[in-house]
Specification:
The structure is a homodimer.
Chain A lengths: L2 H17 L7 E6 L2 E7 L12 H13 L8 E6 L3 H9 L4 E6 L1 H6 L4 H9 L9 E3 L2 H13 L7
Parallel strand pairs in A: 3-4
Antiparallel strand pairs in A: 1-2, 1-3
Helix pairs in contact in A: 2-3
Chain lengths: 156, 156
């Protein structure tokens, strides 16, 4: 299968599940060693889950199938440039490369707020529209110290 | 229950599930109208899911319990300042406010890469360590156009 074949599968998923009313028009596949190991699509509406973007559900599917939280060496084909949540998830999953079809500007043109989110995340915390305040830092720090001292912890 | 009570619950979740080996030392609760409507903790290792951070799992739990993808008016208490994936998820879920205990600097000190991720997301795409390339934009755009023309779509 070629790059175009993988992307056409991502686009087909975006069309099929949009038409089924599951969420927005977004699909993604994860590819490792030349074959698809995970598929996802936007399921925000169907699953009542605001985090169920195509890239997130594709990553979760690949990890479930492969039995790992580490997709090192795999690549993602997504029908649209990732929002910041999905881009950060791609880093946490250790994906090697992103292929995308629609650009963020295309998503903005049909009403998806990715550009606003990128600006918010790049702003200092005090300048964001969702306020954040600190509470009980000393009590939580004790748990971090316990984590640091654990001999058998699994790094991820 | 006070702000401190809610945060102590988030910290208790972080400790309990860290000790159970489910993932890193992170817990979170979602509060609406003065009561906890969702709880989460890091389950990256136990669930083989790199997206299963405490804030994400708390948002998913609250949405499942309330039967909605829109948590407008709710607030999150998290045992650590959110990574960019979780911060963006907080925006998608429409949470009103963030309360956090450990700061990002505390997370960095025990080896969690949040600061690196914030820098990567703020960089222009061409300057990021995970390369991204465009493919078949014209074919994907057709699906966006179909979405735009759908009369019965559910905005989110």
């Amino acid at each position: 299968m070629t790059h175009e074949d993988f992307m056409r599968r991502a686009i087909a998923l975006s069309r099929e599940h949009m038409r089924a009313g599951e969420g927005g028009p977004f699909g993604a596949v994860i590819v490792r060693d030349g074959r698809i190991v995970g598929e996802g699509w936007n399921q925000v509406v169907a699953d009542c889950d605001p985090t169920a973007h195509a890239e997130i559900t594709a990553i979760r599917d690949a990890c479930r199938r492969l039995g790992t939280f580490d997709l090192t060496g795999a690549e993602i084909y997504t029908s649209c440039e990732p929002c910041p949540m999905c881009l950060a998830a791609i880093y946490w999953a250790k994906l090697a490369r992103i292929w995308y079809a629609n650009a963020s500007a295309d998503a903005a043109a049909i009403g998806f707020a990715d550009a606003f989110l990128y600006r918010e995340l790049a702003a200092p915390a005090a300048g964001r529209s969702v306020p954040a305040a600190r509470l009980l830092g000393n009590e939580a720090k004790v748990v971090f110290d316990e984590w640091s001292a654990m001999p058998d912890k699994v790094p991820y």
